UniProtKB/TrEMBL annotation, chains A, B:
The keyword Lipid metabolism does not apply. S-methyl-5'-thioadenosine binds at Q33, E108, D139, G140, P164. Pfam families: Spermine_synt_N, Spermine_synth. This is Polyamine aminopropyltransferase. It comes from Thalassotalea insulae. The gene is speE. PROSITE patterns: PABS_1, PABS_2. It catalyses: S-adenosyl 3-(methylsulfanyl)propylamine + putrescine = S-methyl-5'-thioadenosine + spermidine + H(+).
Length: 286, 286
């Protein structure tokens, strides 16, 4: 590609994020969404679903560290983990680094995302053939309704609540998630941005509050998402994300992380005042 | 303005941030830099120096809360505060909310920035006529070399180390800052981004380490800066930013903040692992 190629992710009608593109590696349209993989300048390879940046090689560790290691270091002995979505493979890759994990079931609706990442972004997809990963191409909403398995931790690694991910933000789905969690189970979900999408956060947390005794929001910094400050929700049947977190387990694990660490674990639950105000009554952060 | 007007801030040659512009309110060129104020869609009024976004009405509270209230709630009795730069007025506005502060001296090199903000962004500039603010149009580098005054807290609210702000990142400047701080003084400085400007952070922290017994980095989320995760450095003659922070003083102050709060104060010093690795030996965060 010799022309000056850029891609732009628009947010609403007033913001655009432009990334320099060196090469288009894959471009397809599944029955669910468009799927593109590009080689960028400065951010490595990048996956886009419906034109929205999902992961880049440069910063994917931030998202995957924080979605996986926060619940897996709170639950004292996570053996059976379910990932809904997460087709790039980065979340499953981090989940199976925990020696307690016997199996990571991953239910991704869109085979095209998995195949594109296996072929072009091995950095995230490299553990999808690991025997501990049970990859199911299917509908996560249907899966949690029908399965008789119980999971210690469920991770909802979804896109925004448009397109195929929309039901993943609803009450019926979370009722089913509750039912297939063990009695001390935890669910963590992609939780959008307090800067630009407080309305989605409020709506998701209202659902979690109806279904779970405890709900929290925690933050991290995503380099390539609009606004940078991004969130995950943490809903739990029993464990408090800070009081039941044993920092010693992080060093005992021998694992090293580029983003996550034991200080950041608790710090991530300290939210800016405007987020606390906007989510008042919906989160148990303090 | 009826055409479809956008402005773009480029970062290096691989990233662009585009903002929808409704109206250009001011556009000038001083002896130091270009100065623009635009009315955006979605981010309110926006100040740009040399084409780089400085403040927007939508998110300026994050930057100004975190540059001002972190040092002012660590120092037990800040009376005399110096702001270098900060021509938009937002930092001085936050400084004088502390009842202990008798005077906030502000040394801004570029009268055009001050005048443009007074006229077009009263949200940040509204306290510049307050009798507690002693606004000096002049060179901050020269000021700290020549003044015989002593300050409890100095805040270096500068642009990036290009153009007029370049000397504000050097050792000679910080030696002079050290000399005009009281014996328990604190200096906080605009500290760039660990994502995109680790090299500048390293170079600034090397300088601070030579001059001060303790140096730290703390983070916050800036909606409109490239990458979102932004930093301030905290260098101190005596006080530890967490151990000497008395959270009770925040609630006792009666002040309310849209970004800062007492949990976030300490949490801001918990850095992602990649930042800790990149700044190893240069920060005393833990």
């Amino acid at each position: 590609m010799h022309s000056d190629l850029w891609l732009e992710e628009k947010f609403s009608d007033f913001l655009g994020l432009r990334f320099k593109v060196e090469n288009v590696l894959f471009s397809g349209k599944s029955e669910f969404q468009t799927v593109d993989v590009v080689e960028t300048k400065g951010h490595g390879k990048m996956l886009l679903n419906d034109g929205l940046v999902m992961v880049t090689e440069r910063d994917e560790f931030a998202y995957h560290d924080m979605i996986a290691h926060v619940p897996l270091f709170v639950h004292p002995n996570p053996k059976n983990v379910l990932v809904i979505g997460g087709g790039d493979g980065g979340t499953a890759r981090e989940v199976i680094r925990h020696s307690s994990v016997v199996q990571c079931t991953m239910v991704e609706i869109d085979a095209m995302v998995v195949d594109a990442c296996k072929q072009h972004i091995p950095q995230t997809a490299k553990e999808l053939e690991n025997p501990k990963v049970n990859l199911i191409i299917g509908d996560g909403v249907k899966f949690v309704k029908e399965t008789t398995e119980k999971f210690d931790v469920i991770i909802v690694d979804s896109t925004d609540p448009i397109g195929p991910a929309q039901p993943l933000f609803g009450e019926e789905f979370y009722q089913d998630v509750f039912n297939c969690l063990t009695e001390d189970g935890i669910v963590v979900s992609q939780g959008e941005s307090s800067w630009y999408a407080m309305d989605i956060q409020q709506s998701l947390l209202k659902v979690l509050n109806k279904v779970f005794p405890q709900s929290y929001l925690y933050s991290f910094s995503n380099l390539t998402y609009p606004g940078g400050l991004w969130s995950f929700t943490f809903a739990s049947k029993r464990y408090h994300p800070i009081n039941d977190f044993q920092a010693q387990r992080v060093s005992d694990s021998g694992l090293e992380f580029d983003y996550y660490n034991q200080q950041l674990h608790s710090a991530a639950f300290a939210l800016p005042s405007f987020a606390k105000k906007g989510l008042k009554g919906l989160i148990d952060n303090d």
